[in-house]
Amino acid sequence: MVEDNIRLLIVEGRSHSGVSDELLRGAAQAIEAYGAEYDVITVSSALQIPTAIALAEDAGQGPVGRRYDGYVALGCVIRGETYHFELVSNETARGLQDLGIGRRLPIGFGVLAVDDEQQAWARARVSEGDRGGAAAKACLETIALKRQLLGRGR
């Protein structure tokens, strides 16, 4: 259990809803096992995730917004026949990395970039790859590291 309550925001892109549900299930289980709390917001595609996180972070700095200790980005991008796959995958990752470094935000990366739906399911299933759970754990580890470096314990 955590001494100081941790609250995360999960932002999930819903382009592939079944896979997104499984990623969310894994993330929720990992967060609950840690003893932290979370909220969930959805956007229609992975490319919107960095913007949603930036908006949530800005809102949390205001008088009525909710503050979050970290963020978990979940989504799935499946390769198609056009260059769109590379644009969405690369720009989503870049946007999240820019937020993490530029604004010092703990962000767990659970956005799958796969060739087909079979690969997506293998990575998303809690019983197999559990990338949602791994993303949540990575976020929680980064929060713990940030607190340690700031002298605030876990």
TrEMBL record:
GO MF terms held by the record: 6,7-dimethyl-8-ribityllumazine synthase activity
Binding site for (2S)-2-hydroxy-3-oxobutyl phosphate: 81-82, 123
Reactions performed catalytically: (2S)-2-hydroxy-3-oxobutyl phosphate + 5-amino-6-(D-ribitylamino)uracil = 6,7-dimethyl-8-(1-D-ribityl)lumazine + phosphate + 2 H2O + H(+)
Gene3D superfamilies: Lumazine/riboflavin synthase (3.40.50.960)
Pathway per the UniProt entry: Cofactor biosynthesis; riboflavin biosynthesis; riboflavin from 2-hydroxy-3-oxobutyl phosphate and 5-amino-6-(D-ribitylamino)uracil: step 1/2
Binding sites annotated in the UniProt record for 5-amino-6-(D-ribitylamino)uracil: 46-48, 76-78, 109
Family stated for the protein in its record: Belongs to the DMRL synthase family.
Identification of the protein by name: 6,7-dimethyl-8-ribityllumazine synthase
Organism: Caulobacter segnis (strain ATCC 21756 / DSM 7131 / JCM 7823 / NBRC 15250 / LMG 17158 / TK0059)
Lineage: Bacteria, Pseudomonadati, Pseudomonadota, Alphaproteobacteria, Caulobacterales
